[in-house]
């Protein structure tokens, strides 16, 4: 599990013919199925793996408790972020704090946005799964897949200092997977100059609170990473490194 302040959370869970309860009270909740089959209410979704199938799962906010049932073995990623408070007038003399409700919505390929990004050895496929169009306000969630040896988050960019119309401010967490069990990558997180490279392997997570954060995968394995942006999702714009 990786988190910021224990409230903005990315948590990978393995289930085997089990039920797992999750609460959506006071939070925005996104569940991405990484592999296997799950049932949520009357809905059933399946995914062979993150490399061969498109994303499935669901999202919801402030709608109580939900039970996820694994049919056989299943691997999930739970993503949580606190909901915003809104003040609503009850009458001329009183008001109340409320949380925005988003009814449970299944993730479908019709609602995701796939882009082919970059060229040459930084070409990759970027799939935005959840953004402001979902009704959620504090999360942007997506997946990136790329071929052996390729770079991603390139040209190096950051999103840690709000500048109107130029740069948004969101923290981010990456969760990595590799087609080959021995696959690995090198994640960079830096501000002024490249330093302290991080070796990432299957199921590793890296928190990116600030700075540029390009990543490259080993030549012998495809790389996938789930990326989660925490912060106001009504405006998202990166600032590219200037050389």
Name some characteristics of this structure.
globular, six-stranded antiparallel beta sheet, eight-stranded antiparallel beta sheet, mainly beta
Element-by-element helix/strand order: EEEEEEEEEEEEEEEEEEEEEEEE
Q: What is the overall shape?
A: globular
Number of helices: 0
Low-pLDDT parts are none
Structure description:
With 243 residues, the chain is mostly beta strands. Helices cover 0% and strands 58% of the residues. It is built from no helices and 24 strands. The chain has strands at 2-4, 8-16, 19-23, 27-40, 43-47, 56-61, 65-82, 85-89, 95-99, 102-107, 113-117, 124-130, 139-146, 151-152, 157-158, 160-163, 167-169, 171-178, 184-187, 198-201, 205-208, 215-217, 223-230, 239-240. Strands 1, 2, 3, 4, 5, 6, 7 and 10 form an eight-stranded antiparallel β-sheet that branches. It is globular.
Give the helix/strand layout.
Elements: E1 2-4, E2 8-16, E3 19-23, E4 27-40, E5 43-47, E6 56-61, E7 65-82, E8 85-89, E9 95-99, E10 102-107, E11 113-117, E12 124-130, E13 139-146, E14 151-152, E15 157-158, E16 160-163, E17 167-169, E18 171-178, E19 184-187, E20 198-201, E21 205-208, E22 215-217, E23 223-230, E24 239-240
Antiparallel strand pairs: 1-2, 2-7, 3-7, 4-5, 4-6, 4-7, 6-10, 8-9, 11-12, 12-13, 13-23, 14-22, 15-24, 16-17, 18-21, 18-23, 19-20, 19-22
